[in-house]
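Researcher: Next entry: AMP-dependent synthetase and ligase (Variovorax paradoxus).
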Amino acid sequence: MTGNDNNNKKTAAAPFRPLFPVRGLADIRRLEETPLEEALTVRSTYELFRNSGAAFGDKTALTFLRSGNPADEPIRWSYAQLLAGIHQTANLLHTLGVGPEDAVAVLLPGCLEYHLALWGGEAAGIVQPLNPLLTDEKLVALMTAARAKVLIAYGSDAESGMWSKAMRLRGQVPTLTTVLRVAPHDEEPGAAGALPEGVAEFDALRAAQPSDHLVSGRDIAPTDIAAYFHTGGTTGAPKLARHSHGAQVFTAWASVQLAGMNENGISINGYPLFHVAGVLPASLSALSAGVEVIIPTPSLLRNKEVLANYWKLVAKYRPSSLSAVPTVLAALANVPLDGADISSITYCRTGAAVLAPELAARFERLFGLHVHESLGMTEMAGISTITPPGVNGPAGCVGFRLPYSRIRIVALDESGNASDRDVAPGEQGMVLFKSPNVFSGFVDPADNAKAFTSDGWLATGDLGWMDSEERLNLTGRSKDLIIRSGHNIDPKTIEDALGAHPAVQLCAAVGAPDAYAGELPVIFATLVPGASATEEELLAFTAARVDEAPARPKWVSVIGAMPMTNVGKIYKPELRAMAARQVVAATVAELCAELGASDAARPVVTTEGESLVHVQIDAAEAGALAAVMQERLQKALAPLPVKTRIALN
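Model: Predicted structure:
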């Protein structure tokens, strides 16, 4: 009998269920009294879905909203239908030559089929969810690094031009053999017409496959790689992180225990499904426990109709939990209840970025919902710490460690990296983890150099401290520290100060280049719709609330929209580039005033990427001043710790 035959005929085990409410570290230690190998016997995500399928059968697993209109009828899949689709997808991929070490790339919006691609992909090989908003060049690089054999793509350009992008990628990834087209929901059969060679309709091929077992002969081990997730949301170039089946299963089990998930739960998952938050804590964990997961349209929470009707959707679908990144919570704070009954929500969660105290207070004041924070990261299969229901903490408190995991807080070295010196409780340092869900390293070994300390701890780059209840409290990211003449300034101090202003919607502090101090603190802000405030007023408001003189920002810039990553984090590299441009532009303006240059002759200042500032002098407009301008600007800008390029045209 093959391992797979054994696996297929094995009686399904019970789904994940919380053993008891977790309210403190004593409860986590109580969970740890049972050895992990006894507490968690599920070996793969495939086995997890077999267990849920057997336990919950006809119960709704996934609800897809066609639009943000609460009156529209959704599409629903039961747990049995989901498992059948996972079997069919895995079997289809197997017939296309996908084995345990082959990658299946996924380029889809929010849709039911994403769950077939994810979990069927993991049952057959290694799934690679892709951010559709990345450039073709980055997608090609990621797929080539993963040696992707199959691409499952959305068959329409209505969402981020995905189908055209998929067709462009076809000829650029050497290992790619097949593209499977996922038809948009409610598309008429045959509407796509003839497809090119090597491209086929996903649903048509899937329907021909067995739906009750895997035909591959595969016995999936916990150490087998389940997924490649790309990182790099708020930093630079994306890297491919490897998740084992065991790491993902542990994330699901630990989330169920600490968050108290069970089959009575309903959640709206508005996180992108190419990101660990949407895939693991918000989907795999929920589906392992029988929760109904709602997908709010292909555009998810980027859909303005969904946001505008969010509380009405809550009133209709009665979710028991609300989970969203802080920037989405800030947007929801501007959506009036208008009498909507949101009493079904008993647990409100956020993560991905530190929650501003003012936003936490505003949300509780407006909706009666305390926001519970968690910490998650790609390198820990989506979850690292959780604040359980019933445990209220101050903003920035991200809760308890997971069972069987460990946390250390260490001082930073002179380069801003983790040292080997532990700090005292209450003292800030870099957060380190050891845990069963720590990832299996990056695909490129060169990317692992800074991921782990020499003694094997995961170096998160997050700054935080432990409180008296041994809860982790975050303050920011080590790379976001503003270093002014060797003085480390925590941007959160400035952000919390300005964030308390009633007109401010979002704000973010960064370092602006300075010839003498290296960096000076500055802050960007967006305003609440309909509110008004001058930059001078906001600067005075902030300065009055920042005790430490070096941390008081030099200026406040009000902008129309905050730059964001695709999962709703504020993108600080772009803000740093904007700050550098403003500093250079001020130097240019000062020089032009000295030279008596006209407005038309003023050089144009632009940025390229995150680290280069261009100064373009129009020789025709500047005339005789052009050469003088160039020489004087080179001298004036040379001391700045930012790359500048001055050109005449």
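Model: Note for the record: Confidence is low (pLDDT under 50) at residues 1-6.
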